[in-house]
Amino acid sequence: MRHSICAGLGAFLLLLGPARAADKLKVGFVYVGPVADYGYSFQHDLSRKALAEAMPDTVETTYLENVPEADSERAIEKLARSGVGLIFTTSFGFMEPTLKVARKFPAVKFEHATGYKRAANVSTYSARFYEGRYVCGKIAARLSKTGTVGYIASFPIPEVVSGINAFMLGAQSVNPNVKVKIVWVNTWFDPGKEAEAAKALLAQGADILTQHTDSAAPLQEAEKQGKLAFGQSSDQYRFAPKAQLTAIVDDWSGYVIGEAKAVRDGSWKSHDTWGGIKDGLVVLAPFTNMPADVKAMAEDTVKAIAAGTVHPFAGPVTKKDGTVAVKDGETAPDPIILGMNWYVKGIDDTLPQ
Amino acid sequence: MRLDLVPRPGRAPLAALLAPALAFLASVLLGGVAVALLGVSPAAAFAAYFIAPLSELWSLQEIAVKAAPLALIATGLAFCYRANLWNIGAEGQFVVGGLAGGCVALATQGSAGFTFWILPTMLVAGTLAGIAYAMIPAVLKVRLGVSEILTSLMLVYVAELLLDYMARGPLRDPAGYNFPQSVPFDAAARLPYLMEGETLHAGVLIAFASVVLATIVLGRTLFGFEVRVVGASPRAARFAGFSEARLTLAAFAVSGGAAGLAGIAEVAGQIGQLQPTISPGYGFTAIIVAFLGRLSPPGILVAALVIALTTIGGEGAQIDLRLPLDLTRAFQGVLLAFVLGADVLTRFTVRLVPGGAR
Amino acid sequence: MSLDMVQMILVTVLTAATPLIVAAIGELVVERAGVLNLGVEGMMICGAAVGFAAAVETGSTLLGALAGAGAGLGLAALFGLLTVGLAANQVASGLALTILGLGLSGLVGARYVGLKRDPAPHLDIPGLSDLPGIGRLLFGQDAFVYAGLALTCAVSWFLWRTRAGLILRAIGDDHTATHALGLPVRKLRFLAVLFGGACAGLAGSYLSLAYTPFWAPAMTAGRGWIALALVVFASWRPARLVAGAILFGGATVLQLHAQAAGIGLPGQLLSALPYLATIVALVLLSLGRRQGGSLAPAALGRDFTPHR
To answer: Which residues in chain B are contacts of A82 at CB distance < 8 A?
Structure first.
């Protein structure tokens, strides 16, 4: 008896299911890495979960993980064909495929992260990660005993380069003689190689590490050797409670929820969002393992950046070759930051041209 | 107890058909159990994996587009593997082919007037680059006896890093805010689409034609005969006066050329620009495809289609049923293992006999 | 460069080489028996996932390492059943194993993302471990490093100093003749495959328990493939395998040091160095060798069925 009731209820729900699902807005995410990377894709997936939690009755979410750039067009189109009304494509390499699929599906809204090409149904969004890097640079310069900071970098793209520059400018604002040693590992995620890079940098006199790669391996290496480091993408405090100073956390939740709401109430329009600390897209994890005065300095800097009184690329900024990049009294306009492919003075490294 | 394998005297057509079907059935059953453990209806999962991709014109096209590079590369590799040459660097040859052909497209960007020659030149450049890159392990093997397994594999990483450097450095779009990608190719440098919907491109035809050509070459030409003889019996080949060195170079040239062609077809067809990565591992997946197809071009075509089907079905299952990508991978692995294991039925009769293994 | 700096570099090289050595020494035995198992990467990543999971659940690094080895062994048993038992194609079966291992590791590891453990403890002998220049290198490693080197010696001894080792090598060179002599070809091959799997799993658990003590998907990042290449590089000899792993690890570590010192060359070129160095070294080695005769076990990769 009980079984037949259950079965009947099940059939009823099954009938009800599709109708209700059609009412909901389906939101899809395309990730370049595994959601379990505990870094970039993981953070994006947190925003998906936050969205599902914030609008449980009106939104349904789904995702595709580990999508290679070369395969992304099919993945995006597959989502569009599955009745998804709002698609977040979360990696720069998905730019052209997103635009192409968007042309085929004018009714579907697309959100492409870290790109610069838009269309009537394609918005772009990104975070001013460099603002966080600037704060980290100041902290590092205050805390480094050797005056040398190690920087583990992934690929020479503007986002990484502007991060290095902002870090250096922040550090120089505290100690003009600070040195930054850079190692390119040519990967976003290879814990072993990141750990080896961390060891090399620590062996060469760096006593604070920062990274633009996704794994917690450099932090753990710093912890093992009693040195300090910054987390990346996620708050990685649990991996290195004695080493993490803070972490530059990507928090996409507010943005993602806002866009989903806009699509639901029909107010969504193509736009470009490049938000920073002020907008809550870039969050600095709690400041730990540092004296109170350094913590106060860091917190003040965060407040000043949010208020707009401090800009990481406020002039004068001199390039490595000695030319002036930003004049005194000005701040670098967005296109310059977005396409940055030069180092500021004091960085001893060369970029591929 | 031990397994005894008794060779079948002749071919067993029934077994040849039944074996893959049985393997498929067994892995679907196992997959169903795994899916049920994850709290998803096995019937829905089966539909998402195997029915949905075959019931839409679009996804049929996508299967063809995904299978094309796999079939093309694997067909080339079949020449090597039949001759017992272990080229596992097709991924690198693919990348170099795409890069070289892409360079032609970028060099001729914006040319006006008569542009008909650009696309063929790209395809030729890609093929030649693939051949040239495959010649490194081939020549090292022939001249110095250096193992091609090691050199071809290591050269994959070198090729990937070369493309990465070029796409981030010299070849990047000057107006692209220094982001790592080239300008989109002109229409003259793109493989045309075959159907409405901008999915099925002419690269599929190239792959199909190559499979047909390879079938003829392997089955009906002296070169194909030499390849088969060397593979089956190196001693006999030596007595027959076949030059091992020449054959090594030729087999590597065929597989490198096929991989290079697949690379530029992918760049000129699906991608339409150069970027730091152009392959989701086609060169390695093609090795499985080659053996799954029993190193015969028609078999390879079928195997490539099956791999493409499960990949695309896996995406559907991920979207609609929240089945993790890892489950799709594990399922593919199990399916392959079962198909390979079941293959034994076509060649042997299996007996369980008492006594220890020998 | 100070003595301590040199020691630090050597320590890094040795630890970077350890997973390669452990995985490759297992594969060396497999290939010496005439079986080519391309699934090292898959067994390794499963070892990393299962090893970490077991260590978290039990709290014991040793049990974790054993579980990791067991995971590799389990996958290898499947491979052995296919290739040795059913005479399935070895190359394809090995690649199937790679995909299967990647998938299974993700499923097993999903619950352990974002957890951390303390790294496996390092040896600490008062006095010896603090010796300047050599103390940390010789007396300050974790158990995996010593185990890897011990394993290499043991395999070397087994293959060339024991009767069973002789038989194993003979089987790898000519399975038909050894079978005719009444030697248990399939049984020994199966055991060799199991040993190789256990080694690969152990190497994987080294990554997730000692090297970078957490679980992350695909954290082996191609090391299984490098291990395969090293077996070839080593001409199937254990001592040369260690040398090859150190060469490869050394090139990786040195290029990172060169970058940190500000050498100013493109990162991609430097990242390609370990691969190029391995090729060049192999070419140089073969220049010095007399021509003719492959060094590979003659039956490598060929199926064997007793009745054929």
So the answer is: 316, 319-320
